[in-house]
Design a protein that fits this description.
The chain is of the alpha/beta class and about 350 residues long. It has helices spanning about 55-75, 95-115, 130-135, 155-170, 190-200, 210-220, 275-280, 290, 295-305, 310-315, 320-335, 335-350; strands spanning about 1-5, 20-25, 30-40, 45-50, 80-90, 120, 180-185, 205, 225, 240, 260, 285. The strands form 2 sheets. The protein has a 6-stranded mixed beta sheet with strand order 1-2-3-5-4-6, sandwiched between helices. Strands 9-8-7-10-11-12 form a 6-stranded parallel beta sheet, sandwiched between helices. The protein starts with a strand and ends with a helix. The structure holds nicotinamide-adenine-dinucleotide. The site of nicotinamide-adenine-dinucleotide has 26 residues, from helix 4 and helix 5.
């Protein structure tokens, strides 16, 4: 296994990362990066993406941005954990069987070599089974299958969706009956969010690259299927991005009909100034790492050894109150909600 510690302070997203390591394993074909952003609050925890990036630099940029975001997310989620993230370069949707198992075992060894500085969990195109395989090689893993974990935990997506629901409830400040919500991406989080919103009486508009994913929401919840590029202009009260990052940008913000953006995707703002563009249009923005923290709270508590599931779920439900705190801080200081979240998070992880 070839391990190379990277030093790229020239990159705009480098941001004082504590450790960024490139791992290559010829035997399994593993090509991965582990980025540890900050460990002052505790070991860095963040999921692992298994994605066919167009280039190594694209993968590096993604992991750096995501690991930094985890420092902010974990701090605001009141977890004694720092921020980190990992990417495996490859098509995580199609690589399966013995080849996948080999990759996961090698990735587990790479995590083990970090000596507890980084704790891995699932993210895009990795799952509980993958974590279970890594657990055979390292203890620094969470989001495990039921037969491998002692306490609460497992698949984080339903808890992420729950945290989004709590955030929407707080932002709306009343019953959700008749509320119109557009959900972009009806995968693991988006589908459960649709389920919760439908139960609460909301009306749904959905889009996804994969038609099957939207058809399921139409059949199960009566959702209106919208072409991928038309979701931004859907006639709704809330736009909920649950697919990918950078979707709040110069092209999309002007066409939004929604008065609020609250969704699960990480790094939703293409650039920091897009928070101002949303505010200028009077659109309330629920900062992504505040509202989508339900999953990491769930697996973070699993890793930290929580035994009381009800207490963990209550911590997820607390996301609504955290969003309230952020919005009040923004209002009191005449800054955007994104700036308010950053300021509050920095105070938490720099204080210790
Ligand atoms: P997922 O891969 O299960 O689902 C994402 C869905 O988005 C897929 O169905 C995909 O086809 C669709 N999609 C991709 N590009 C699209 C586009 N341009 N338009 C519409 N749909 C598109 O992923 P997930 O676990 O549901 O996570 C969704 C987002 O939330 C990701 O950005 C992820 O990083 C973030 N997130 C997830 C969790 C979690 O617990 N799973 C936690 C925090 C943040």
């Amino acid at each position: 296994m070839k391990i190379q510690r990277l030093q790229r302070p020239d990159l705009p997203d480098w941001d004082h990362h504590e450790n960024v390591t490139h791992i290559q394993d010829a035997d399994s074909g593993l090509d991965a990066i582990i980025a540890v952003h900050h460990t002052r609050l505790g070991p860095s925890l963040g999921g692992c993406r298994f994605h066919a990036y167009p280039s190594f630099d694209a993968a590096l940029t993604d992991v750096l941005r995501l690991s930094r975001g985890m420092t902010y997310k974990n701090a605001m989620a009141n977890l004694a954990l720092g921020g980190g993230k990992a990417v495996i370069i490859g098509d995580g949707r199609t690589i399966g069987g013995a080849a996948r198992e080999k990759i996961m075992r090698a990735m587990g060894q790479a995590v083990q070599m970090m000596n507890g500085q980084y704790v891995i969990a699932e993210d895009m195109h990795t799952n509980e089974t993958d974590m279970g395989i890594m657990h055979g090689v390292t203890p620094f893993v969470c989001g495990l299958p039921a037969d491998q974990r002692k306490n609460v935990g497992g698949n984080p997506s339903p808890m992420t969706a729950r945290g989004i629901l709590r955030s929407i409830e707080i932002a709306v400040g009343g019953p959700l009956t008749g509320l119109k919500v557009a959900v972009q991406g009806t995968g693991s989080v988006g589908y459960v969010l649709c389920q919760l919103l439908h139960k609460a009486g909301a009306e749904l508009w959905v889009s996804d690259m994969h038609r099957d994913a939207t058809v399921r929401c139409r059949d199960d919840f009566g959702a209106v299927i919208v072409p991928v590029n038309d979701i931004y202009a859907a006639p709704v009260d809330i736009f909920s991005p649950c697919a990918m990052g950078a979707i709040l940008n110069d092209e999309t913000i002007p066409v939004l009909k929604a008065k609020m953006v609250i969704g699960a995707a990480n790094n939703q703002l293409a650039a920091a100034h897009h928070a101002d563009a949303l505010a200028a249009r009077g659109i309330l923005y629920g900062p992504d790492y505040i509202v989508n923290a339900g999953g990491v709270i769930f697996v973070g508590c699993e890793y930290l050894g929580a035994t009381d599931e009800a207490a963990v779920v209550a911590q997820v439900d607390h996301i609504g109150k955290t969003l309230c705190e952020v919005l009040n801080f923004a209002n009191d200081n005449s800054i955007t909600s994104a700036a308010a979240a950053d300021e509050l998070a920095q105070a938490r992880f720099s204080a210790k």
